[in-house]
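Q: Given only this backbone (139 positions), what sequence would you predict?
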């Protein structure tokens, strides 16, 4: 990124990647708390990967001045703790949790319309749901 030769295709690739990521998160969050757990697991996994790469005992890539600054800054215990947290969140998202029965806000069901496809005669729809209309003569 220092040289500035990323070009328009690099910018397009970055924008597309961010749009796909945002759409994926929105889709997962539409599935309620389970989707939120999956998003949390993905965020924790990304952080755990970075922490694992910075654990003491790993070496930086040759010629990487930025890598040398961060390698060895995370203890192995913290790295393992993050991996366990990721595993717990993934297991919680995968467990079959019981669903609550749906409750209705209405106390009584809505009566069917007389003009439904089950109506006995076509004339019942012409009279309207509350009896014959004012313009029709009763027989």
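A: Predicted residues:
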């Amino acid at each position: 990124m220092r040289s500035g030769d990323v070009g328009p295709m690099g910018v397009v690739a970055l924008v597309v990647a961010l749009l796909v990521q945002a759409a994926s998160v929105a889709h997962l969050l539409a599935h309620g708390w389970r989707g939120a757990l999956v998003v949390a697991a993905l965020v924790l996994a990304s952080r755990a990967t970075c922490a694992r790469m910075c654990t003491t005992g790993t070496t930086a890539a040759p010629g990487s001045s930025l890598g040398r600054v961060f390698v060895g800054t995370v203890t192995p215990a913290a790295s393992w703790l993050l991996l366990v947290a990721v595993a717990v969140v993934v297991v919680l998202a995968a467990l079959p949790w019981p669903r609550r029965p749906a409750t209705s806000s209405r106390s009584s069901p809505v009566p069917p319309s007389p003009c439904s496809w089950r109506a006995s005669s076509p004339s019942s729809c012409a009279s309207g749901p509350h009896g014959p209309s004012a313009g029709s003569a009763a027989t």
